[in-house]
Amino acid sequence: MMLLKLANLALLILFPISWFAPLMRAGLLPLFGLSEISVITGLQSLWGSDVILALLVTVFALFAPYTKTIGLALIHFGLLRRKVLPVLQILGKLAMADIFLIALYITISKGIGVGRIETAWGLYLFTFCVLASIAIGQLTEKRAVTPVSVSESETKHRL
């Protein structure tokens, strides 16, 4: 259980790093330089053009995974009941939608052939954080369902 606590606490640091890390480098033509795009720079662009989409991406890319990570930390340290785990699992699955969107953007832009896109290390870090959060949530949920010990079952039968 201690390893789960430490891994989850590490995510509290790694998630913000992944938001500012370059997800991809994009350029209009191979002759021009590439601009680095991160979750934060992508959100900044979205806020200027489409506020509703920016709000949705902000919730799914930033708030959902971080809220889940904080919730799991609170459960690990006994400050939140385990009844909240199903809600936290849903938050983790919603966060994965952002990875799908990024992959879709890369696929579409490469298919057009006008620009050039290269994936960067931040995409892998962000993907790792989301997948690690899902795994930690699953392991925490499995640990919540503990079998009844022999002494407890014997005590119940005696009564």
Quick synopsis:
By secondary structure, the chain is mainly alpha-helical. The chain has helices at residues 2-20, 39-49, 51-76, 85-112, 121-144, 150-158; strands spanning 24-27, 35-37, 116-119. Helix 1 (2-20) runs antiparallel to helix 5, helix 2 (39-49) runs antiparallel to helix 3 and helix 4 packs antiparallel against helix 5 (121-144).
Plain-language structure description:
The structure is a single chain. This protein is mainly alpha-helical and 159 residues long. The C terminus is likely disordered. The chain contains 6 helices and 3 strands; from the N terminus they run H-E-E-H-H-H-E-H-H. The chain has a 3-stranded antiparallel sheet with strand order 2-1-3. The longest helix is centred in the middle third of the chain and has 28 residues. It has one domain: Butyryl-CoA Dehydrogenase, subunit A, domain 3.
**Helicity range of the residues?**
over 70%
Domain count, please report it: 1
Count of DSSP-assigned helices: 6
Which architecture name does CATH use? Up-down Bundle
> Quick one: how many beta strands?
3
Specify the oligomeric state: single chain
List keywords for this structure.
Butyryl-CoA Dehydrogenase, subunit A, domain 3, 74% helix, mainly alpha, elongated, three-stranded antiparallel sheet
